[in-house]
Amino acid sequence: MLRISAWSQTMPLALTASIVGVMECVLNLWQLLKQRDLTARTLERRQIWIEQSKSANTGRPRVAIVTGGNTGLGFETVKALVEAGYFTVIGCRTVSKGQEAISKIEEQTGIKGQMTVLPLDLASQESVKAFSHAFKTLGYSHLDILVNNAGLMDIPFGLTKEGYEMQFGVNHLGHYTLTLGLLPFLNDAPQGRIIVLSSCAMYSSNDIRYDLLQGPKGYSRLGHYSYSKLANLLFVKALDRRLRKFQLNITVNAAHPGACSTELFRHNPMMNFLMIPARVVCRTPLVGAMTSIYLALAPGLEKVSGEYFFDQIPRTVNPIAADEKAQEELWAKSVEFTGVDIKAVKI
Predict the structure, then answer these.
(1) DSSP per position, 130-147
(2) CB within 8 A of 298, min separation 6: which ones?
(3) Of the listed ranges 4-13, 293-302, 306-315, the one predicted with least confidence
(4) What does DSSP assign to residue 280?
(5) Is residue 347 included in any domain, yes or no?
């Protein structure tokens, strides 16, 4: 993957991102051949983390938020959190879809009254801020886990309500504002955890073209997706440094789910068609959600922060993601685009 990062300087972004995707599918095939009992082993590890989390509970209420928790990876993450005893809030654009997810999880687990859904449109800064206010009205004084799971990929050109490219706006800017708005609640938990869904697509970009985020000029469906995923890693690194600077009791880590059979390609009819045979070598949402579940529930991660995890192991990031200058540029642009900064957050 690091070699892919070097190639990204000479190849079109979409081509580089496509190569990364093919490599992910090859990795999945290799894993399936090596671990034919993958689903059984996945369920076993998942149950261990759930039981460990339950045994560590002191009896106080525990609360989690999962964006995009109504489907795919988010659905599996919510289900695990509920089984571990967390009251879990699903944030999604369509409340009825969130309620459908709640009904399914209650039916599958037999656990009722442990979930709610709040409207959240990550393409609208107003909606993001309204979500944070709505969470406050639920009456909880703290937030244990925030999983920034929702995302868009490979979509036609579009702009957020504030006029920024949609993939970058939803995958990064919306979650940036949401995370900073919820920091006071996370800091009031015994140990707040933030999980940011990223992707190996971040390897296909060696910078972010901020000059191409407010119009159709130079738009690339997969290229701009890679910008947003690189932004996720830069954000994790920059936020981790600030959490340590202000001595906040919060960790933040990135999780890569691998190439999964989810709804990410729903905006591209051709890719949706190609994904039918490709599902043979794609991970199930359950397997893909495992790293998020691990980072949310597993013990021994209280001091682990600022890392990029794949298959529950810290991995080497794209060199540009480790560059402090690039991290600070992303932070400055995020402040400029949203008007939100950690300095103004009352913690």
Answers:
(1) HHHHHHHHTT-S--SEEE
(2) 49, 52, 53, 312
(3) 4-13
(4) G
(5) no
Q: How is residue 304 annotated by DSSP? A: -
Per-residue pLDDT of 236-284, as tens digits, reads 999 999 999 999 999 999 999 976 655 544 544 544 444 444 445 577 8
Dist CA 97 CA 80 (whole Å): 19
Q: Which residue has the tokens 């399936």?
A: 32
**pLDDT per residue as tens digits for the range 137-152:** 999 999 999 999 999 9
Which of 86, 164, 203, 225 does the annotation list as catalytic? 225
Burial classification of residue 191, based on how many CB atoms lie within 10 Å of its CB (0-12 exposed, 13-18 middle, 19 or more buried): middle
310 belongs to a structural domain:
yes
Residue 346 maps to a domain: no
Residue 223 in contact with residue 278, Cβ under 8 Å? no
Q: 36-61, pLDDT tens digit by residue?
A: 667 888 999 999 999 999 999 988 89
Is 225 a residue of the active site? yes
Phi, psi dihedral angles at 254 (to 5 degrees) = -100, 145
d(C-alpha 159, C-alpha 165), whole Å: 5
Single out the residue of 27, 28, 14, 22 nearest to residue 204, CA to CA: 14
Neighbouring C-beta atoms of residue 40, cutoff 10 Å: 10
Asked if 270 and 57 count as a contact pair (C-beta separation under 8 A), the reply is no
Q: Do 81 and 145 contact (CB within 8 A), yes or no?
A: yes
| pTM for the full predicted model | 0.88
Number of domains, the chain: 1
Q: At 89, is the secondary structure helix, strand, or coil?
A: strand
Contact 170, 122 (CB under 8 A): yes
What type of residue sits at position 150?
A: A
Give the relative orientation of helices 290-297 and 38-55 as an angle to the nearest 10 degrees.
20
Structural domain of residue 78, as residue ranges?
A: 2-339
